[in-house]
Amino acid sequence: SRELGRAYLAGRGVPASTAEGVRWLTLAIEGGDAEARLVLAQLHLRGLGHADTTDLFAAPVAGVTDAPAAARLALSAAEDGSVEAMSLYAWLCATGQGVEKDPAAAARWYGRAAEAGHAPAKLGLGMIRLHGLDGVTDAPMACRLVAEAAEEKLPTALYVLGTLYEAAVPPLPFDEARAFILYREAAEKG
């Protein structure tokens, strides 16, 4: 059901229909599919999670975002082991969208996803450690995590790593040339 839902969302092999995609994702969720919960959570954040089913093949119209629904779905999928959902839920905790702002919970969920190798989670946890948002500042760990995310060519991580070199955040040396290369690579990747 999840793949059919995604096919409708993307218009792959079937007419594009957000409403039909949401319907199939909901069926997959009822069957316990964690990844379908993640996709529906992402749709809720874009205002598409409550698609109108009266006109199944109408162009998608973004409605009001439903961050609380996104948070519930992301947490449920994260608890079932979805690494991307862990990272999404961490971001929601860090930003206070759909849940009360909780940097400590964000750090825990980012940490779990980072341990699984998820580059955006490494960047998120790196930023928390860099700024001590949860009361724990660890610049060397932050630099390592951001560098690992940058190795995955994550544009934001490339940019942040450039700023770390430019600011000479320990243990990184001041390296304006390296920062420039990272900024350019981040820009080229959008």
Which secondary structure elements does this structure contain, and how are they paired or packed?
Elements: H1 2-10, H2 18-30, H3 34-45, H4 67-79, H5 83-95, H6 103-115, H7 119-131, H8 139-151, H9 155-167, H10 176-188
Helix pairs in contact: 1-2, 2-3, 3-4, 4-5, 5-6, 6-7, 7-8, 8-9, 9-10
Task: Give a quick rundown of the structure.
The chain has 190 residues and is an all-alpha fold. The protein has helices at residues 2-10, 18-30, 34-45, 67-79, 83-95, 103-115, 119-131, 139-151, 155-167, 176-188.
Describe this structure in words.
- By secondary structure, this protein is mainly α.
- Helix content is 66%, strand content 0%.
- Helix 3 packs antiparallel against helix 4, helix 6 (103-115) packs across helix 7 and helix 8 crosses helix 9.
